[in-house]
């Protein structure tokens, strides 16, 4: 028996063809506010990993020739969540109604009385062509634009495509989706029905991403071009005189990291700016956080902190997470920021210092070397800690190095745990996508990000993923973790922050 509660609403959202910036503003807002997100293989990973933690993610991607959920099963799953009263974002690559089976899903929902909304996306035929410098129309060369699906070309008798009509289309641009495996048959059909063998053509592989490849050809040589360059799906073909304009309109080039796939293991809530910075430099970002950070309430630590009165008092922060979660909980517990005026503040590293300064707190002590061990020794040597109260803001994985050093120097150390780090198990489907297209470089920002990778992958998968990748470490402790697993690094940052890792990647690939 079905539930008597009011059904939820389903949003069929096009996400664009690859560049995560190409999703519409409305589409992104809805994805972030819905309770459940069902997503395809071609959805940009960045859109998925940056969803709020409260959103349930369900992978329903279909990949040619591989085991996958059927369309009927996907329809029933969408219906199930909607009938439970949940708001559902159904994310589809590019546009949901252009070769995306969005109309089938909408008809199914209509049949079952489920309210839905269609949010258009930029289709690959337009976006990938634009990124390749090929205009779909131009008033002198093409006044007609035709989108065609190529995957049914093989069966001459049952194909729904009128190849004769296409071959005779005058002043037209033909954009063929899903045609890599059938391109030989397609070109033969078009030439057989009268299209000039010398008609300009182009194939665009992984359009709008940093690893996009574009190859120009004549119609008669298109199959050889695909074979010679090992072109694979997702790719599309543009056939028509507009291809000749590419030499004047090609713009997606010249960035220093263009063509490089950079994997970022940092928690997604901290890495959004890094994703954008890398994309601005031309990289294709692989946002695969191996750890997640959540708040914890350490009542005993807070009680000791709140009972502190008078005397020399220090607040010690060794991470950006510590700053953010401490101040959030401090205010939630009803305190006034002025109450911290009696404390001096210490911070490890430029990132932690910047996090404090975002809250208008200037640290009194910043060590010369941004590691906890070096900081502990420098802090104890530089200051007289006898009879000093030191509040150590920490996470669950921090060791006791600082506490022991400070206590040996005479301090009364009060640990206040405000967050916990857990190994992040990737959403279903993301791991296979990552292994299919491994990275050129991987950023590790802590020892826990290294351990988190090994929680997700077995030994053979690690070799497949990192076999030809350059590894970048934020500092000595992270390097030690990598070395313990037998991994060699390309660079270790002299200054232990994210900006320096990005600079290291730029330097490495410029060489």
Give a description of the structure.
- The protein has four domains: about 10-120, 3-Layer(aba) Sandwich (Cobalt-precorrin-4 Transmethylase, domain 1); about 125-250, Methyltransferase, Cobalt-precorrin-4 Transmethylase, Domain 2 (2-Layer Sandwich); about 260-290 and about 425-510, Rossmann fold; about 310-425, Rossmann fold (3-Layer(aba) Sandwich).
- The chain is an alpha/beta fold and about 500 residues long.
- Helix 12 (about 320-330) runs parallel beside helix 13 (about 350-360), helix 14 runs parallel beside helix 15 (about 400-410) and helix 17 (about 445-455) packs parallel to helix 19.
- It is elongated.
- The chain has helices spanning about 25-35, 45-50, 70-85, 100-110, 125-130, 165-170, 185-190, 220-230, 245-250, 270-280, 300-305, 320-330, 350-360, 370-380, 400-410, 430-435, 445-455, 460-465, 475-485, 500-510; strands at about 10-15, 35-40, 55-60, 90, 115-120, 145-150, 170-175, 200-205, 215-220, 235-240, 260-265, 285, 290-295, 315, 345, 390-395, 410-425, 440-445, 470-475, 490.
- The strands form four sheets. It has a five-stranded parallel sheet, sandwiched between helices. The protein has a five-stranded mixed sheet with strand order 6-7-10-8-9, with helices on both faces. Strands 12-11-18-19-20 form a five-stranded parallel sheet, sandwiched between helices.
- The mean pLDDT is about 95.
């Amino acid at each position: 028996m079905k539930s008597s509660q009011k059904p939820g609403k389903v949003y069929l959202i096009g996400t664009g063809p690859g560049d995560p910036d190409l999703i519409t503003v409305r589409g992104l807002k809805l994805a972030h506010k819905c309770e459940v997100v069902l997503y395809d293989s071609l959805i940009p990973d960045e859109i998925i990993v940056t969803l709020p933690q409260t959103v349930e993610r369900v992978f329903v991607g279909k990949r040619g020739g591989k085991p996958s959920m059927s369309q009927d099963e996907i329809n029933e799953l969408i219906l199930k969540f909607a009938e439970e009263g949940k708001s559902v974002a159904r994310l589809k690559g590019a546009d949901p109604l252009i070769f995306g089976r969005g109309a089938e899903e909408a008809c199914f929902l209509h049949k079952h009385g489920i309210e839905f909304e269609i949010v258009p996306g930029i289709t690959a035929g337009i976006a990938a062509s634009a990124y390749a410098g090929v205009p779909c129309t131009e008033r002198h060369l093409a006044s007609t634009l035709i989108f065609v699906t190529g995957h049914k070309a093989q069966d001459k008798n049952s194909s729904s495509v009128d190849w004769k009509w296409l071959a005779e289309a005058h002043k037209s641009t033909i954009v063929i989706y899903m045609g890599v495996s059938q391109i030989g048959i397609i070109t033969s059909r078009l030439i057989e029905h009268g299209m000039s063998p010398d008609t300009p053509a182009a194939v665009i592989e992984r359009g709008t991403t940093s690893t996009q490849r574009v190859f120009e050809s004549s119609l008669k040589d298109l199959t050889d071009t695909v074979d010679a360059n090992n072109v694979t799906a997702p790719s599309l073909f543009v056939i028509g005189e507009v291809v000749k304009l590419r030499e004047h309109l090609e713009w997606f080039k010249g960035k220093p990291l263009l063509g490089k796939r950079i994997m970022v293991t940092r928690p997604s809530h901290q890495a959004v700016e890094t994703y954008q910075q890398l994309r601005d430099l031309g990289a294709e970002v692989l946002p695969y956080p191996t750890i997640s950070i959540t708040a914890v309430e350490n009542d005993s630590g807070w009680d000791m902190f709140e009972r502190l009165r008078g005397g020399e008092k220090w607040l010690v922060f060794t991470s950006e997470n510590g700053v953010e979660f401490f101040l959030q909980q401090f205010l939630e517990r009803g305190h006034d920021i002025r109450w911290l005026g009696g404390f001096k503040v210490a911070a490890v590293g430029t990132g932690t210092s910047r996090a404090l300064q975002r809250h208008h707190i200037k640290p009194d002590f910043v060590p010369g070397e941004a590691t906890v061990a070096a900081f502990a020794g420098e802090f104890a040597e530089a200051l007289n800690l006898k009879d000093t109260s030191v509040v150590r803001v920490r996470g669950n994985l921090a060791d006791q190095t600082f506490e022991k050093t400070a206590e040996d120097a005479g301090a009364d150390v009060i640990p206040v745990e405000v967050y916990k780090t857990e190994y992040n198990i990737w959403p279903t489907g993301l791991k296979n996508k990552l292994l299919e297209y491994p990275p050129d470089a991987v950023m590790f920002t802590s020892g826990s990000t290294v351990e988190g990778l090994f929680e997700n992958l077995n030994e053979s998968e690690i070799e497949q993923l990192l076999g030809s990748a350059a590894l970048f470490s934020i500092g000595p402790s992270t390097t030690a973790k990598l070395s313990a697993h037998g991994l060699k690094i390309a660079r270790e940052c002299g200054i232990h922050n994210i900006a320096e890792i990005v600079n290291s990647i730029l330097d490495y690939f410029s060489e």
